[in-house]
Specification:
Strand order of the largest sheet: 15-12-14-13-17-18-16
Oligomer: single chain
Strand content: 5-15%
Number of helices: 40
């Protein structure tokens, strides 16, 4: 198994790692050439079960740098592999050469012709494209399950499809034009009027070869007929030979043969796709059958009735999710041979909704069912049905043994033989002693997946998998003439079997195509065309057991778009990948390799992790990588550091006073010497004190003025707990300071006739989040238990709720139960802790009269608001107070993370860049959030003062 590269490693070109970077630096900014051990290890894995450590990771900007990389590759004989989202399941985006990361600087897109088309760079995520098209009632055609986090480059390069798009709406059939770069450096925009002329002029041999291959296919009637037939069903095995029969001009043939070519022929710099209608009127339900044969018999009538999605599941699939919440009870009582189909009909217009019911009734009239059809128009109930399908992957993945990965294989069969193929596959699983396999299918297209846990740590596991796959391949090709890859791309795991599926002639054409474009085989070698008969079991990913917080990770990459540090250091997935490599090196006794990673691990993995937990909201298994970060922060603190933290928690009133004094002195010094001098001074002091002292910036808030408001407990409807952030931090520079956040919330509550009680002994009470995020577990325990004890006293033992004015603190308190003593857990269970957003929307807003509105506001929902599901309520409050509310499409965690933005401002700068750019494109009368530190971060990023949404509500309801 490959291990981490050292700085002295020599490449196949004979260049050391340092020499490689030096030579590349002649044309690429050295900051975008990553070759430290931690960098190359971080990119060694994609979502597949393969693993290769690159010599360097390069992040180019612009076509000119792509051309330079091609020249460098040819000159030094170093392979190039392009990578977008890294969600490939078949190993297409791992490399031991140069890995070219296009996710970082290729994110441009533009909606054109009123939503009929969209222009996309390869680093744009499918979810971003669909979000941009949503206002037009459109979406892109390809709809893989990973569309939200898969890059356009990957979607095109794998001809990805999914549950609804089938063959007709995939990337191949919705492609308008491409701009591509060949290994020779030639750039062609196929939309140009003279594109074919330029292609023939600049690449005469390639153009001639394409026409020869076209004639070769069309001159062989049997092969031509086979090509046409194969692409009537889903098929991504090998190169797309249908381009040779569908198009006449060389440039058009090559344009479409690039779709599904998995980065082995050229670099796709830009694509224009024709969009498809986003059908939002839906009728969804579940049909249950006595067996797979009965389910398969329903596919054609349901498809002919117009069903947009038909997701067939075997009994093992249904058994895997039958105990999940909200799953229909009937599933648990099904017989062992039963099967189900999740069905969805879709139309564009609301007036056509009744037609969906008619279509379903006609389609199911003659079906053999074991339970009455269960269908709904209600979006919430529809979401519950889709949870059945979505629950398969996480349920099986969580149940797998540690040290294993998940394999999701991807086949296609004639629809009329789908049940027979499924039964044959089930028999093969039994033959090879695989007990934990589930089968499910995009049945409308005969696309059958099987999902199973698989380990590669021992040789017998490799041999077991090899035996199964060899049998599956033979059966699929020889018995059913099916496709070995329907939508996931050939990758590495099916490349030895391309010849078997396509025959000698079809495979020879693919070889000739590759030879004509890339004669030295330097572009993504090992993918699609590979002479090694056993390459599918080479470079397998060994999965060592590490910390339980993240052991279940399958490195799918779903978390990465949510990760605040994704453009600065490591993503959540990469933290786990690096940690696993450290464990591999430790087990192998490679102390030097371990030390090389460990040297950069603190900053890359720990210091620059925002511990926001948003990764868990995208993770199919709900893994919160921040728990790994907190664990390592905890074990790296000395005993004395833990003791000092406990002391600070026990004497938090003194900690508050020191913080307010620090802000006062800082602003005094800044008034005398300037903010720039203060920033330099604090940076210099950090060299002496370590990373404890915050870096000064002009956005530092002033200390809050005055004491806590005086209120009485008698007749109070709720306790108002002003958090330590609200008690310490006052107005930002440029922000009005006439009313504090506490004053604003009390004003609004009074107008609503809701009396709030602010305990005077709230001073010194902390929710514990500042200690928890830093890994000071004992101090967190002290702080949060003290808070719950105070809450218990203030509320009359839970008689009234507690309102918290800072959302991260609300979330920290609401999730604190595991950290409480048994006595405080009992108290916690009787307490009602409410975030100010929920309180304002549910309790205050209905009682308030809006006297005035601002025209336009923009919101920053902080990460804890997202996790608590309060974004819609924040929008509701802002919407009542303004004419227009905007939540930026790129809104995410600002990574200020309490004080992380003071300690590592580069993290916040990187995390907020997309959102800030979006905000600055608009023109807003107010900028609002629900956490003072996050407001500081967004103010710093945009230059616009962000305030609590409570100030907006106070302004709008003031008589």
């Amino acid at each position: 198994m490959a291990t981490a590269a050292s700085s002295a490693k020599t490449s196949r070109s004979g260049l050391s790692s340092a020499e490689l970077k030096q030579k590349l630096s002649a044309t690429i900014d050295p900051a975008r050439i990553l070759n430290r051990p931690i960098d190359v290890v971080a990119f060694a894995s994609d979502a597949s079960f393969y693993r290769l450590i690159p010599e360097a990771v390069v992040q180019p900007q612009g076509v000119e740098e792509i051309q330079a990389l091609f020249r460098f590759s040819q000159e030094h004989g170093i392979p190039l592999t392009f990578r977008g989202g890294g969600t490939s399941l078949s190993g297409q985006t791992v490399s031991d050469g140069m890995l070219v990361d296009v996710a970082r600087h290729w994110r441009g897109f533009k909606v054109e012709e009123g939503g009929k088309k969209i222009r996309l760079q390869p680093g744009v995520l499918g979810g971003q494209a669909n979000a941009a098209l949503y206002p037009y009632g459109k979406k892109i055609g390809p709809d893989p399950a990973s569309v939200a986090i898969a890059s356009i480059g990957g979607i095109l390069s794998n001809n990805s499809s999914g549950m609804s798009c089938g063959v007709v709406q995939n990337a191949y059939h919705t492609l308008e034009s491409l701009t591509f770069v060949l290994p020779t450096g030639t750039v062609i925009d196929t939309a140009a009027p003279d594109a074919d002329e330029q292609f023939r002029l600049k690449e005469p041999e390639l153009a001639r070869t394409l026409l020869e291959l076209k004639q070769r296919i069309e001159g062989n009637p049997a092969l031509a007929a086979r090509v046409r037939a194969k692409y009537k069903m889903k098929n991504t095995t090998g190169y797309g030979l249908n381009a040779f029969v569908d198009f006449e001009r060389p440039v058009d043939i090559f344009r479409n043969v690039l779709i599904g070519s998995e980065g082995t022929l050229a670099f796709i710099a830009e694509a224009v796709l024709r969009t498809v209608p986003d059908l939002r009127v839906k009728y969804t339900g579940l049909l249950l059958f006595p067996n797979l044969h009965a389910a398969a018999a329903a596919i054609v009538p349901l498809r002919e009735a117009g069903a947009a999605a038909l997701e067939m599941m075997d009994r093992a699939s249904l058994r895997a999710i039958q105990d999940l919440p909200s799953i229909p009870p009937v599933i648990k009582g099904l017989a062992d041979d039963a099967a189900g189909i999740l069905v969805e009909f879709q139309v564009a217009d609301e007036q056509d909704r009744p037609l969906l019911e008619v279509k379903l009734q006609e389609a199911v009239a003659n079906l053999t069912l074991v339970a009455p059809p269960s269908f709904t128009h209600d979006p919430a109930e529809q979401a519950q049905f889709w949870k059945i399908r979505a629950g398969l992957f996480p349920t099986v993945s969580i149940a797998r043994a540690t040290g294993t990965t998940m394999i999701t294989e991807d086949l296609a069969y004639p629809v009329d033989r789908l049940a027979e193929a499924a039964m044959d596959l089930t028999a093969m699983f039994k033959k090879h002693h695989y007990d934990d396999v589930i089968l499910y299918s995009h049945a409308k297209d005969g696309n059958l997946h099987f999902m199973m846990p698989q380990g590669f740590n021992e040789q017998w596991q490799v041999e077991k998998y090899s035996g199964l796959l060899e049998d599956v391949v033979a059966m699929t090709v020889q018995k059913y003439d099916g496709a070995l890859k329907a939508e996931h791309g050939t990758g590495r795991n099916m490349t030895p079997f391309v010849r078997m599926e396509w025959g000698d002639e079809g495979y020879a054409i693919m070889q000739q195509l590759k030879q004509a474009v890339d004669p030295r085989g330097l572009l993504n070698p090992g993918v699609i065309i590979n002479p090694d008969r056993h390459s599918y079991i080479a470079n397998l990913k060994r999965t060592p057991v590490i910390e339980p917080e993240v052991d279940k990770c399958i490195e799918c990459g779903f978390c990465e778009p949510k990760c605040p540090s994704r453009d600065l250091s490591l993503t959540a997935r990469q933290r786990i990948v690096v940690r696993r490599e450290m464990q591999r090196l430790k087990e192998a006794g490679d102390l030097a390799g371990y030390a090389a990673l460990d040297a950069d691990f603190p900053y890359m993995a720990l210091d620059t992790c925002a511990v926001d937990g948003l990764c868990a909201t995208n993770c199919p298994m709900g893994i919160d990588t921040s728990k790994l970060t907190k664990y390592f922060r905890k074990i790296r603190h000395s005993e004395q550091e833990h003791k000092r933290a406990v002391s600070a928690a026990r004497n938090f009133a003194a900690t508050e006073r020191l913080a307010r004094l620090g802000l006062s002195l800082g602003h005094l010094a800044a008034s005398l010497f300037g903010h720039t001098t203060m920033a330099s001074l604090t940076r210099g002091l950090r060299g002496v004190t370590g990373q404890v002292l915050p870096l000064w910036s002009k956005e530092m808030p002033r200390p809050r003025k005055g004491e806590l408001p005086v209120t009485t407990a008698a007749g109070a409807a709720a306790v108002y707990f002003p958090t330590c952030v609200s008690r310490v931090m006052g107005a930002l520079p440029g922000e009005p300071d006439d009313v504090t956040l506490m004053g604003a919330l009390l004003n609004v509550a009074e107008r609503a006739g809701v009396k709030l009680y602010v305990p005077q002994d709230a001073v010194g009470v902390c929710c514990g989040v500042p200690f928890s995020s830093k890994g000071f577990d004992p101090a967190h325990h002290v702080a949060v238990n003290n808070a719950i004890e105070r809450f218990w006293k203030w509320t009359g033992e839970g008689a009234i709720p507690v309102v918290v004015d800072t959302s991260p603190c609300s979330h920290g308190l609401l999730t604190a139960r595991p950290h409480l003593t048994a006595e405080n857990q009992a108290r916690f269970d009787k307490l009602r802790i409410i975030d100010s957003i929920e309180f304002a929307n549910d309790r205050l807003l209905p009682r308030l009269t809006v006297a005035r509105k601002v025209h336009s506001v923009v919101l920053h929902p902080v990460c804890s608001v997202t996790k608590m599901g309060l974004t819609n309520k924040l929008v509701s409050v802002a919407g009542a107070c303004s004419d227009r509310v905007t939540v930026p499409q790129s809104a995410g965690c600002c990574a200020f993370a309490g004080d992380r933005g003071f300690l590592f401002p580069e993290l916040t700068e990187s995390a907020t860049k997309p959102e800030a750019a979006e905000v600055l494109e608009g023109n807003y009368d107010g900028h609002y959030s629900s956490s003072r530190t996050c407001e500081i971060g967004m103010t710093r990023a945009t230059g616009k003062v962000y305030r609590s949404f409570i100030h907006l509500l106070d302004f709008a309801t003031k008589p």
